[in-house]
Amino acid sequence: MPRMLPYLLLFPATAFLILFFLYPFTLVAIDSLRHDGVWSLENFDRMAGHWKFGITFRNTILLAAVVVPLQLTLALMMASMVTRLVRARGAVLYIFAIPLGISDLAAGLVWLAIFEQSGFLNSALTGLGITERPQLFLGYQSKGVIFAAIVLTELWRATAIMMVILVAGMGLIPKEYGEAAEVFGASRWQRFRRVTLPLLKPSLQTALILRVIMAFEVFAVVLALGGTNLPVLMSETYHWQFTMQERGVAAAYAMVILGISVGFTVLILRLLHVPKEARP
Amino acid sequence: MSETTVRRAGNRVFVAAVVLACVWVLVPIYLLLVNALSAPAEVTGFPKRFWPSFDLASIRFFLGFRGVTSALWNSVQVAVLTMVMAIAAGAPAGYALARFDFPGKQLFRFMVVMTRAFPLPLLALPLAVLFIRVGLDDTVLGLAFVHTTLALPFAVLITYSLFSGIPYELEEAALTLGCNRVQAFLKVVLPLAAPGIAASAVFAFVISWNEVFASAVLTIEHRTLTAFLLQSLDVSPLPLKFAGGAALVLPALGFIFAVRKYLFAMWGIANR
Description:
Oligomer: heterodimer
Helix content of chain A: over 70%
Largest sheet of chain B: none
Strand order of the largest sheet of chain A: 1-2
Structural class of chain A: mainly alpha
Number of domains of chain B: 2
CATH superfamily of the largest domain in chain B: MetI-like
Strand content of chain B: under 5%
CATH architecture of the largest domain in chain B: Orthogonal Bundle
Distance between the termini of chain A: 32 Å
Largest interface: A-B, 94 and 94 residues
Number of strands of chain B: 0
Radius of gyration of chain A: 23 Å
Largest sheet of chain A: 2 strands, antiparallel
Strand content of chain A: under 5%
Order of helices and strands of chain A: HEEHHHHHHHHHHHH
CATH class of the domain at 54-228 and 274-278 in chain A: Mainly Alpha
Radius of gyration of chain B: 23 Å
Structural class of chain B: mainly alpha
CATH architecture of the domain at 54-228 and 274-278 in chain A: Orthogonal Bundle
Order of helices and strands of chain B: HHHHHHHHHHHHH
Shape of chain B: globular
Distance between the termini of chain B: 46 Å
CATH topology of the largest domain in chain B: MetI-like fold
């Protein structure tokens, strides 16, 4: 084997990642620390001093804290279904995976069709005689409903990605372990809890990291359903960059999102650590 | 109750749960399509019917709206460029990872995996300025570069798992039978890997087609469909939103169908 061949093959991808991944992230870090041409924490001060920052931060974390655990449960249920299915497995897997190809903006519009004032939820409620006239679900006075609508949309949209990772992980677990447990009288739930779940740790780790980072990036769903009523970190970044033309503050927001993303990645890696020898 | 009746009841609950989960995924998409296939007056009217009137006025309104056709065309261009660049850079890297052991391999893998821990759309912020300097601002190519960064890690990991699944012995046999390295790759490995490479190309297309944040930050005159829809959210009438949403969703159904066999190659190897 020519010694340089692998490096030649890796060159385009490496060059690309350095130019469009490492370099821009260095730039954004520098941008966040520069104000009027001097090094300072001014951008961070202005970001944290603005009244919207606290709300934005809280909304983002709260959304992630509500969505991710629910989503993990739902994804585990759907993955178990697919794993247990024999007939129609391919069709069910395809249907479950459809949201994987749907953008956050499209998902927001899908659920807007349900929740808007002349939407399908109101039509169903009045049709069944539960309410007399259509309710305004997504108005600025009903932030709780907006929050719930966003949670539903996120559950609908992003469970697929966790589900696929978990199905793949369940496929790696040797069947004999479950069968052995069954011989010793373990119930279905016990087998899931004591055999599947511990052996699924590496997949859980990957699924959680991907999903948590996606949760901190939540953007178009929130704008489609709530407009500016429920600001999140990403929408404020966009606002500072685009509407206010304050790139320094936008960069400071970017560093906050980056910080919590990396922080949670490390946390999940620690919490779900699997020693190399113990991997299936 | 005998054991079989318990088992049968359990099975019925299981089937019901599977059906319910399918309904949960499919019904919202159906409702969006009902809106897209109804006349604008029906979309804004109340109460709403739960089946479409197959009136194409909403679709016509959407396609005739200023900027929509060019936005659609821009989206296609960016996505095709992304697809080509992601595969052109990603597949050789995947092949190298699968076939060779060399110093620096772990470092490269670390860099690829690390991209997952970063909110990549944020790259658009510094690049917006950088692109102005080099004349790439508000261009299809500039945005395609950012989207390729999103798609490249997937292209590398998918092709890595594909090539790992093709025994090296096949290539060696071709080499002993007189092929050179390039011929062995083109005649033996590539035909076996082609469907998987096509699937990862489709996936790169989807990533670009769906991306919102970077598109909205980096394009002004040459907006993609997602950027167009996002920036007109608070001014556009409902029929436009829903027809636009349907235009985003419909290709997705086809994309996922095309790559369904490779879903696990894309995500399953994530933990290795």
